Task: structure prediction
Amino acid sequence: MDILAHVPILVVGIPLLGAFATPLIARAGARARNWFAIFILLLTTALAIALAVSVFQAGPRVYVLGGQSFGFTLPSGYFFPIRIILEADGLSAFFVLIIAVTTLLGAIYSTAFMRAHSGLEKYYALLLLLAAGMFGMVVTGDAFNFFVFLEITSIAATGLVAFRTGRAESGEAAFKMMVLYNIGGLLVLLAVAILYGQYGALNFAYLAKLIEYSLLDVVALALFVLALALKAGAVPMHMWVPDAYPAAPAPVTMVMVANTQIGLYGLYRICFSLYGLKLTPALVGWIVIILGILSIFIGVSMAVIQRDLKRLIAYSGIAQIGYMLLGVGVGLAVLGTPALDSYGLMAMKGGIFHIVNHALYEGLLFLAAGAVSYRAGTRNLDQLGGLAHNMRWTAFFFIIGGAAIAGLPPFNGFASKLIIYESVFKFNPILAVIALLASIITLAIYARAFQSVFVGPKLPAYKDVREAPPSMMFAMAILAALVVLFGLFPDLVVRYLVSPAAQALVNRAQYIEAILGAGLGVR
Amino acid sequence: MEVLKTGSGFWSALIWVAIALGAFLIIWLFSRAFERGYKRGTDQADPFLSGNPPSPGQRVTASDIYWGFVEALKGYYRPLVRAHSGVVNDYLAWAILVGAIVFVLLGGFMR
Amino acid sequence: MIANFPYVTAILLMIFGLYAALFRRNLIKIAIGITLMESGVNLFLVSLGYRRGGIAPIYTLAPEAAERMVLPTPQALTLTSIVIGLATTAVLLALIVVIYRHYGTLDADKVNKLRG
Result:
């Protein structure tokens, strides 16, 4: 059997099965449980790389569940797809890689970070479930499946945020997050129902072919934009983010960053692939841009006054989400005009490149903050100080992450921000100036955070603090190495990872063709 | 060598690193000629905080940094912090408000 | 006219649920509001699948005339979303229990340790 033919379903299925097998394996001991979770995620990462390579080489992959054959999208004699179809194009492959890397490193980091907690079989089960949900959201080509996987990620993420129930903040943050996720999920379901009621179909590609932009389609679009921007944590629906990120254990926070970005994936997929030129590109583009600018502005200004290290990183992360919205929003605003080729596509590449960079450096920062709280026992910036004496490597990794998020050369954040500034400047100079200013304030924020946590004389309270355990150092080292490598060779990353993703968004016909052109059915 | 096209310009981290190394080399060459007047363990090495005599345990905490910035922008920060009230109903209200605006915009400018 | 009643009811349910989630300060009432919204969406979804005199083609039940056949997709979707709704409601209520243990109150105005 050709295993590679089944990769699209395997990246969803293996973590899903692994999640429910974890409590069983955990009966054999903690070591077996940890190795099992890491093994499952390693396997998934290998499959994710295989999927990405095949998509980048040969274009979109489709996979039909329960059909006569796996590539047979249209049943004989039918004009439209009725089965659940997975569809992975360049954008999906790009996100699959991000999810695989962050969850794998999160699991490795968790082995040391979560050691003192009980009930860890549930923790790893939820982590794998979250991975399965995120993979499902990015490879599915079916609107209802999208909702189901969205709810899987909501439930698993809430469980992980609330995992340390001994702390008051966990329950509170998880509750607020769950209420918003729940509303978001319901809005997505309502939008899917509206589309189904009109066209009698659930397949994105088939809906994209039929869609007419009637009043009900407008309602569905507004619901999708609201729900997915909420999941992405765009201002002013961002308020759950700074609550949930600090309350979650550090490795979970890193995975949650990827989970937030899946909201962006959904937003891009709906706007570009489902509606495409049928919507009013300039208007929807400007809505996305304004959400992005608000996120950048409010995110950095709230980060300046934070006293909790992880809360500070969470607020500056919201600002970075704004850059992604801004870059791709500019691409959406000029969709279908000649400006798309002159700077719109470049802006989209910048926004999409920033997604992978953000997943890496934000993850690195959260892991470093986790190492600090693991050893020093607090995240309060006023109490911390002088930790660089004892935690040299953590301090080093924090500098790399901080420099990357502030957009200092030669780290990866600089390359993507440079693309965004230059192409957005051609669209509207004021937006580029705001983005640039926010980047400067980000540098100031991280100078303050680094100064308060790591610099200064050794404090008596942290005299005996030691360096973080090896598995935590390993996860941070991998992320730091990726941050530096992506910074040194941005051209390769853009050519092999980012360009296919941006092209997949613009090329709506290809997305439709992959489903409706591959069948052997009549017509 | 490959460079990244950024729309109107180009960016190559390797060239930047080479230039930065060259600049550091020049600085290092000049620094050999600097005066070596710094003496460890004297008053020169103590922190100087606005003329106060240095006391043990005195340090700049996170809340002190950018105090002037936040103080000057008080009128901006006070409503902003109040908006982040931490009450779940308010979070929901913001989301619904944005949804309403998006809906009105999309519906109002329908072709 | 009478055929639109399910849609009107669904929209009313959603509005009531949203009202409860927005303006009630008791956490359990917020959870109830979300459940109401969920019911509204489910009702909307299942009423989309109603065809007058239609027959679901389950195994031997396929009708002679093809136009009387209805695709049972909306019913399947509704069942799935009811199950998902059960899971999310259970998670919400469990979190309320956790909150009550720590804060000793269910007033949303007092459960705001995380702010600013």
User: Anything to note?
Assistant: The longest strand of chain A covers residues 61-64. Chain A touches chain B through 65 residues (CB under 8 Å).
